[in-house]
């Protein structure tokens, strides 16, 4: 390789000077701590023991130790079955993602002035899954042994998903050093935040920006398929379990299942919007995203459904008034989230030129009108309100089920801070003007 080519690649893939999360120490801590947190949260919601109360009145460390011992025993005994199920799930979805028809769309313009092409087939994927579930319901006369198995092996599967995230992240890190075999490029575009040269940090944050295996975009696939759809199935398995056990439909459990199912299906069907998200355009695909997509989403976003499936039926029943409050809050958040996102998309497409904006030296405009004069990330606020409505389905029965809104708030604030640093460098004085006009970052009049 000539010196000129090396110089050009160095400019195209600059070294990461300050990695997120404090470099290797933070990356290592999160790589160990987050999987432990996910497993512990699930050990605190079991059929033989679950954490109740807004102050954890019945917390018992011995119960946690007993649950951990039972989990290890169950995991060892059923390892082959667990890994077989999960790999089949992952592989079948990958094959369907490649084979099912969809609309081809160009991604955003990358820093090498190229665009990746994505197949948008979320609708056909959703319809296929729905048809399979309906067929299985008919063939098993509603028994759905797959749901029963999924419910019984929930926490052990969480461990499998964590281990698989390690494997996927390691593969993608090693694969990032392999020159492209297919395509017109003779180089790989690396993530600006994952090219520090530190193995642990780059493995965690993701070294390659968009790892692909043939037609399969690994990052886009993991973002929308295995974890998101497993989230949906876990919720359904909880609802199914309670129905088989009691012959009744629990209103709070039905509500959380419907709300989260709608969120998942809406996200998969509208996956074209994901192409422009920071996860796809900016972040590398390392353990951070692999673990989040494959383990954290399906096994911690379902805590409300899991809790309602093991808690006392009569005590946790919401009733019509409380259900109405939850639904109104979910609809309010959904409206803010989608209305603001659609407004920004229309503005970028040139359809809302009458809205006020600030011109920048990069020939782009910063929208500061409509929804976007209320806060810099008003869509985040809508998303968080929806998250709060999900937690509210457990009302005041357990603080543990409110984990999600605290985690999600931290995630959104971290994204906002990172976005602010990037925009400040990119837009300079125009960003200062923008901040003076739109001072609130996420929550209007508060933050």
TrEMBL record:
<feature type="transmembrane region" description="Helical">
    <location>
        <begin position="151"/>
        <end position="175"/>
    </location>
</feature>
<keyword id="KW-0756">Sterol biosynthesis</keyword>
<feature type="transmembrane region" description="Helical">
    <location>
        <begin position="285"/>
        <end position="303"/>
    </location>
</feature>
<comment type="similarity">
    <text>Belongs to the ERG4/ERG24 family.</text>
</comment>
<feature type="transmembrane region" description="Helical">
    <location>
        <begin position="394"/>
        <end position="413"/>
    </location>
</feature>
<keyword id="KW-1207">Sterol metabolism</keyword>
<feature type="transmembrane region" description="Helical">
    <location>
        <begin position="315"/>
        <end position="337"/>
    </location>
</feature>
<dbReference type="InterPro" id="IPR018083">
    <property type="entry name" value="Sterol_reductase_CS"/>
</dbReference>
<keyword id="KW-0472">Membrane</keyword>
<keyword id="KW-0812">Transmembrane</keyword>
<feature type="transmembrane region" description="Helical">
    <location>
        <begin position="83"/>
        <end position="100"/>
    </location>
</feature>
<dbReference type="GO" id="GO:0005789">
    <property type="term" value="C:endoplasmic reticulum membrane"/>
</dbReference>
<dbReference type="GO" id="GO:0006696">
    <property type="term" value="P:ergosterol biosynthetic process"/>
</dbReference>
<keyword id="KW-0443">Lipid metabolism</keyword>
<keyword id="KW-1133">Transmembrane helix</keyword>
<dbReference type="InterPro" id="IPR001171">
    <property type="entry name" value="ERG24_DHCR-like"/>
</dbReference>
<feature type="transmembrane region" description="Helical">
    <location>
        <begin position="21"/>
        <end position="45"/>
    </location>
</feature>
<keyword id="KW-0560">Oxidoreductase</keyword>
<dbReference type="GO" id="GO:0050613">
    <property type="term" value="F:Delta14-sterol reductase activity"/>
</dbReference>
<keyword id="KW-0444">Lipid biosynthesis</keyword>
<keyword id="KW-0752">Steroid biosynthesis</keyword>
<feature type="transmembrane region" description="Helical">
    <location>
        <begin position="120"/>
        <end position="139"/>
    </location>
</feature>
<keyword id="KW-0753">Steroid metabolism</keyword>
<protein>
    <recommendedName>
        <fullName>Delta(14)-sterol reductase</fullName>
    </recommendedName>
</protein>
<dbReference type="Pfam" id="PF01222">
    <property type="entry name" value="ERG4_ERG24"/>
</dbReference>
